[in-house]
Amino acid sequence: EVQLVESGGGVVRPGGSLRLSCAASGFTFDDYGMSWVRQVPGKGLEWVSGINGNGGTLGYGDSLQGRFTVSRDNAKNSLFLQMNSLRAEDTALYYCARDGGFSGYLDYWGQGTLVTVSS
Amino acid sequence: DIQMTQSPSSLSASVGDRVTITCRASQTINKYLNWYQQKPGKAPKLLIYVASNLQSGVPSRFSGSGSGTDFTLTISSLQPEDSATYFCQQSYSPPRTFGGGTKVEIK
């Protein structure tokens, strides 16, 4: 069974940093690209970043380049999102999701980890 | 960046109705369009990928069509459990943008 479990969320002050993790199981991790998607509670979905199975990044959403960095450790079946210079508008539930194939659709999602940026 | 525009933003329909949601891309995305369903407090769930492919386990009343810039998600006979918000997403080029969502309510 495919499982994705995010962790690392919490409350952080503006300008601070957080590192999110996503532990994957139930599939051959390095065969799949992975993505981060965020959602302000009650609002829409925003694609944050993606990374292919070899560690090549697929870019970042608007205003995130330079502040967020996606990475993965295939030996540990883990995906990461390093978030720096956090702003109030980065407050959201952050999901990790598996890229189901070369076409980039997201076929499995975790339950999310909440990031709150507040002074 | 490719902008995705969904319409309507919300709708209310009766059980058994045929429901259609549209998604328009700001530039051609070939068939790289995916549809997700999200219920309150839950993660999104993939329904349709690459415009018209039904994800395993998804009821056959859901279908997708389109190519280029215009796409539709159709629920052929609305069921009570279909009450949710539906999002389209383009995976043609990063950033893989989502539409704003369509909230479907049951009358």
Structure summary:
The complex is a heterodimer of chains A (119) and B (107). Chain A contains no helices and eleven strands. Chain A is mainly beta and 119 residues long.
Q: Would you give an account of this structure?
A:
The complex is a heterodimer of chains A (119) and B (107). Chain A is mainly beta. Helices cover 0% and strands 52% of the residues of chain A. In chain A, the strands form two sheets. In chain A, strands 2, 4, 5, 6, 9, 10 and 11 form a seven-stranded mixed sheet that branches. Chain A has a four-stranded antiparallel sheet with strand order 1-3-8-7, with no helix packed on it. In chain A, a hairpin with a 5-residue loop joins strand 4 and strand 5. The radius of gyration of chain A is 13 Å and the shape is globular. Chain B has 107 residues and is mostly beta strands. Chain B is built from no helices and ten strands. A six-stranded mixed sheet of chain B has the order 2-10-9-4-5-6, with no helix packed on it. Chain B is globular. In chain B, 37% of the residues are buried. The model of chain B has no long low-confidence stretch (mean pLDDT 97). Classes of the chains: A mainly beta (119), B mainly beta (107). The A-B interface holds A 35, 37, 44-47, 50, 58-62, 95, 100-101, 103-107, 109-112 and B 1, 32, 34, 36, 38, 43-46, 49-50, 55, 87, 89, 91-92, 94-101.
